[in-house]
Q: What sequence folds into this?
């Protein structure tokens, strides 16, 4: 039986059975989200393991299986445990690994590229113009942006290998689709498929659907092919192929990183917000499909 401890071992904050910010390790060491993230670096100081969100025991079961009343407090205070050697951090599910710097740098990187690309566009010749045109294309429509961010959010919610595999699959297959589009190779149902992808990926995030990595790759790859084909067919006539494709690949990767950062950042304290963002994405897709947006 899982022991529901009543407090954070670091700061002694009360953590009643219904607390949504209680995190535990495999030995049931219990900490509040603030201490677990900002003090301990998401690593248990007692065993060196990772944290997971503590499940909430139904109220009807608390009478038969009450929470513990024994408070455990580290009188010597808390200090961060040794971080994993590869510098990774854990999601709320305790199984997702991503480079620690992605959360810190993704937003600033996106802003930096967004600021730099218009300057390149003024050159108007060669690779810089093609790179700028490709970079701006995914940012020019709500459908593309919603899907790219949703992929990152869904990967963050699923955790594990999906954090890397799903965004990488999207970018890779999208480039193949872009090449087909630039070569004018027809692909059926591109526009309806793109609208469907906005709704579908939004719902996958909103419902926090947990799928095997391979199944997620298949779904994401299908949608990526359609988005890539649209990028390719809408390329400016004077755009160089490699520069243009590199531009929309970078923009897509940055939008994925934004989704990952948001999913990881919101997951610990506000897990419902990430799912709400998915619902908003699905609503955007529906609005585009019915001509409201």
A:
């Amino acid at each position: 039986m899982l022991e529901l401890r009543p407090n954070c071992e670091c700061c002694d904050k009360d953590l009643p059975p219904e607390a949504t910010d209680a995190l535990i390790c495999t030995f049931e060491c219990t900490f509040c989200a603030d201490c677990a993230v900002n003090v301990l670096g998401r690593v248990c100081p007692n065993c060196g393991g990772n944290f997971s969100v503590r499940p909430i025991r139904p109220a009807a079961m608390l009478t038969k299986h009450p929470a513990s009343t024994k408070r455990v407090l580290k009188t010597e205070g808390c200090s961060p445990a040794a971080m994993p050697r590869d510098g990774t951090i854990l999601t709320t599910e305790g199984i997702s690994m991503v480079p620690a710097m992605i959360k810190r740098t993704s937003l600033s990187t996106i802003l930096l590229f967004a600021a730099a690309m218009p300057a390149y566009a003024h050159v108007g010749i060669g690779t810089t113009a093609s790179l700028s045109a490709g970079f701006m294309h995914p940012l020019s429509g709500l459908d593309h942006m919603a899907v790219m961010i949703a992929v990152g959010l869904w990967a963050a919610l699923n955790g594990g290998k999906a954090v890397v595999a799903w965004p990488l699959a999207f970018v890779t297959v999208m480039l193949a689709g872009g090449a087909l589009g630039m070569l004018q190779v027809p692909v059926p149902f591109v526009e309806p498929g793109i609208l469907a992808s906005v709704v579908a990926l939004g719902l996958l995030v909103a419902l926090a659907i947990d799928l095997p990595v391979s199944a997620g790759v298949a779904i994401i790859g299908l949608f990526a092919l359609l988005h890539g084909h649209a990028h390719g067919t809408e390329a400016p006539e004077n755009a160089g192929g490699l520069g243009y494709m590199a531009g929309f690949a970078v923009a897509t990767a940055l939008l994925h990183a934004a989704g990952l950062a948001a999913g990881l950042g919101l997951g610990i304290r506000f897990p419902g917000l990430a799912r709400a963002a998915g619902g908003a994405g699905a609503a955007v897709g529906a609005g585009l499909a019915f001509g409201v947006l």
User: Anything to note?
Assistant: Confidence is low (pLDDT under 50) at residues 82-127. The CA atoms of residues 182 and 232 lie 4 Å apart.
